[in-house]
Amino acid sequence: MRHKVLLFDLDGTLTDPREGITRCVQYALSRQGIQVDDLSRLERFIGPPLKQSFIDFYDFDATQAQTAVDDYRVRFGRVGMFENMLYDGIVELLRALKGSGRQLFVATSKPWFYARQIVTHFNLDSYFCSVYGSELDGMRTEKHALIAHILREEGIAAGDALMIGDRSFDLIGARHNGVANAAVAYGYGSREELVAEAPDYYFETLAELQDTLLACRA
Asked: What radius of gyration do the chain's Cα atoms show?
């Protein structure tokens, strides 16, 4: 696998954000009069664009969904973004990949305003050339638009890049731009969801991902 540029999703790929995201969604829904006690029911919010998820999962109209996003961000900006943890082995993986000469970028649907704070909080910023995310107004929340933006901004040839993520949106966004994709099953996408997109690479564990990425240095 001789990809010179690696684009990493954040939630479900580098970090496990379950507690922060589900509790912030729970808070936003409560502001709309909807009580959800079982946080596992809200795990489906991890990965896809937030506003669209409120529309898809709770039949909110656009105005309700934006209000929910605003309420979510109140809690997320205060505490939710740090209710998060690195997956075991991520630091070692990033260190080895940077040492192998790869260029690493974060490519997340989460607003870059939060994503950069999270990456810095976990002391990962030294491994990445840059952290890319959506804008607070919703621009580039769709992965295909975000990846296209990164390729354009950084002057990266699509054939040199590999997108690594745990949801179908990551795989679809990469393919839309002619970028190879790798699905990781340790995150929040089900096997059925990921396999349905026929990823170029499929990894059950972080160890499998590391072994393959480092088997052939760039």
From this structure: 17
